[in-house]
Amino acid sequence: MSSMENNQIPQATIPPRRSASNRRHGQKRIPRKPVPQRRPNSSRSFTQTFAWLSGALLDRDSTPTVQEEEQSQLNEFNRHSYRYTSQFDPRMQSGLTLYDPELQPNRLSKPPDASTRSSVVDALNLDWQLPPLSRPFADIDVSSVLNVAIEAQANLSPPAPGDAPPPNGGLIAWLQVLGAFFCYFNSWGTMNSFGAFQTYYETRSDWHRSPSEISWIGSVQSFLSLMVGVVTGPLYDAGYFRYIICAGGFLVPFGYMMTSICTQYWQVLLAQGFVIGIGNGCLFVPAAAILPQYFSTKNPLVNGIAASGSSLGGIVIPFVMTRLERQIGFGWATRTVGFIAAATATVSIAFMKPRLTPKSQRKLLDLAAFKEPTYSYFTGGLAIAFIGFAVPTFYLGTFASTTGVASEEFSFYYLPILNAASTFGRIIPAILAAKYGPLNVLIPICLFAGSLALIWTTIKTSAGTIVFAIFYGFCSGGFAAMSPIALVTLTPDLRTLGTRMGQLFFCCAMGLLAGPPSAGAILNTTKSWIALKCFAGGTVVAGGLVLIFARVSRVGWSLKKKA
């Protein structure tokens, strides 16, 4: 039995093609219009490889007329196979090589059986048959040709449902944006609104605590919001999304309820500092991680919409506290904030659902990243800047009420003004970053914010304080939005992005923990607001200068390069 008989290819049922012998007996050959060959842009695609191997099987001793018909058959093969491959894999349109026997050797350990050969031919949807061979061949193995087809067929199979591309729209996808919006509302919105509580604790409570001691409550809350995110990131990768978001949705309202009945400083520190801080960290990670699973082409838009929840939280919570505290007391005003947090967290729990389960868990640490000068400068610069960046949000209301810049009632409104301006700070810098690069936008924002804090030392009127709140709020929004985006551009291997971002959050959390209490200690010691403002502005400017070194190590001193 010949080699051809051992590897017989099932043929589709089509009318028999006219042989050369019929034409030699007087039958006139019908001219056949050649089918244009459609090929992808790649240097060697699956169809080209299969056509080349099939050409080696043809009878080279046939008459020129037969060769013309065989070439037409191969052109037809290219047309049908390209139609099939482009149906399931759009990469054919972009010129990517799907199969190359030199780069991706055959991995099949044994020749395919008859059923496998039949499935390959059927899968390619061929309505033609290969030209019959005029003689057996010994040098070419038909099974190797089929191996190429079977291997490519495996590569071109339709993606599994879980690996499908993001929908980039639809009701379910936009419900995830809504859920992430309220996660930001209850996490970063809570952190942005602590200044209202700081002002109340300093001016109206019976604790008689120093500003430094009171600021520890907000600092611990901000610190845990980032630190818990470092831990919940791997838990999210392990598939515990539902447990994480439910824990956060319970802890934040529970912390507010417990704060409403606290009468001692240490009780408020536990309830508002630790409990709410841990809840913030549990809500922050799902909000940041779930949106890329549903959107790939609208990332700037959906992330901007979701992140604006933090600005709204920074407006609503201080406003509710200010208005209701005078009417129904601190306890019920805080409970009202807790009810708002519970209602919005319920929306997130009800609608948010991850599409994909991460295939591999990320590492918790990547210490080798600190050997890269760019990453080290970037992380160090942000950590230094975070020491002073939160100081104005903590002490702006207290400064206005204690120095006579504004009345005690109006001093509560400076913080909502600042947080409202941060909404625009999240949008406009993102537009500029798309053109000039996120690091090129982040550095001027950081330096300008530090300069504003230093200019704050000369402001002694209510109008000037409002202007300062608007501009500083704009910078704070841009600083928070550009920091993680800049890290993406500085990460050579995006598979380590989650780990590197966790390390960055850890360092920034240390800055948040140390900054406001240190500023309060300076104020308590020197009795001078100028010293506090210089501390805030100096640390932010110093952080911006370190970020310049990160840019230089990345692209050099040229100002025209995008970074």
UniProtKB/TrEMBL annotation:
Membrane-crossing residue ranges in chain numbering: 214-233, 240-259, 265-289, 301-320, 332-353, 374-400, 412-434, 441-459, 465-490, 502-523, 529-552
Organism: Exophiala aquamarina CBS 119918
Compartments, as annotated in UniProt: Membrane
Name by which UniProt lists this protein: Major facilitator superfamily (MFS) profile domain-containing protein
Any one GO molecular function term: transmembrane transporter activity
Main location: membrane
One Pfam entry name: MFS_1
Key words of the record: Membrane, Transmembrane, Transmembrane helix
Record lineage: Eukaryota, Fungi, Dikarya, Ascomycota, Pezizomycotina
Membrane protein topology class: Multi-pass membrane protein
